[in-house]
Predict the structure.
Amino acid sequence: MSDATRSSSATRLASIRDRVEQGMDRREFVRTLVTGGYAVGMAHFLGVEDFLAADDDEVPVVTALVRSDPDDPWSLEERTEYVPADWYAAVQKAIELNDRLSRVAFTGYLGSAVVPKSYDDGGAAVSVGVSGDLDSVRETIGELGDGVSLDLRSVLEVDAVEDNSDHYEPRMVESVTASRVPAGIACETPSSLATLGPALFDPEDEQEYFVTAEHAFEEQDDVAGASLSLPVSSEEPVELGPVRSAYPVEDVAAIEPNGELSPSTWIDAPEPVRVRGQLTRWGLADLIARDENLEKVGALTGHTTGRVQGFDAVTCFTDDFCRRGQIRWGGEMDLTDGDSGSVSYYSDPEGEAEDVLVAGFNNARTWWPGQSYVWGVAAYRVTEQYGYHF
């Protein structure tokens, strides 16, 4: 980002801060932030105190929703961090461009993602997957991409994915010895194998659910009510419960416990970890800016790690609709059939040694030339759309 843009961001922030210090009510504060070029979501979630605590060249963002009490799923608190104002402005502009590209849906558009650059760089890019000639796409985008770096990648063929799950043995529990079932192990639908995710909570009715990938039930005439079971290596499978709600676009199925077993916030990693909350959109942006990795535990490939490659991604490769609010991370070898339903996560820097924050669900991987990543819906997208949280 240019020095002139950096100076403009700092001047605008200083002006708003001066007006806050002179006294204004919350409604005027929110309106001032929005008209000053900052996201309405940030303005509504953050308070005047957060804004005043920032340096002149910084802005506060909510990076995570974290339980103050690990045993109380309803004790969620927002975690605030301070980021460079110029970086924030660039990422926000990239988010808006990415949304516009997906809604224009020009010929050849297959998907896109927001890719923040480092804090020192202060910029952001939008990675766009297209079919066809790149020059013609650049002409089509035209002024839409003004001021934001575009990384155009041609995808010439999108064929059927090759299933390599036969190379792996499913991770199953040896016996049922506890009432709570950890995540990261195999679960079964009437037609396929998937991975069990950690407990998903619905604050509206204060209910906890088992969760896995909706597409694991794709051969069922009616996903709602279909049964999910727990395969046990030394015993017969144990029924976990029926599907209460299914979301095919996000590829998430919430299963209501039948009373015998309950979902757990623990993931069966090599060193077991406990879910303490989840990352927000800006939490993911922060990880990309710092070149951080996510982790996952799948029922087939087990524990893997990989760099976060993009957020707020739109994926239109596989269906006659586009999936929004996606994460791209890792590589194509980090996922195979049977790993769907697992979650990607990041160690909580402010929690106990075993605490992690969920980034999102893992639903598929690339199989087309030139790109390599795992993709799936972000936790923040599921929360925004349906209210569930980890």
Notes: The mean pLDDT is 85. The two ends are 36 Å apart (CA to CA). The longest strand covers residues 302-315. Helices lie at 3-21, 26-35, 40-45, 48-53, 85-104, 134-141, 281-289, 379-386.
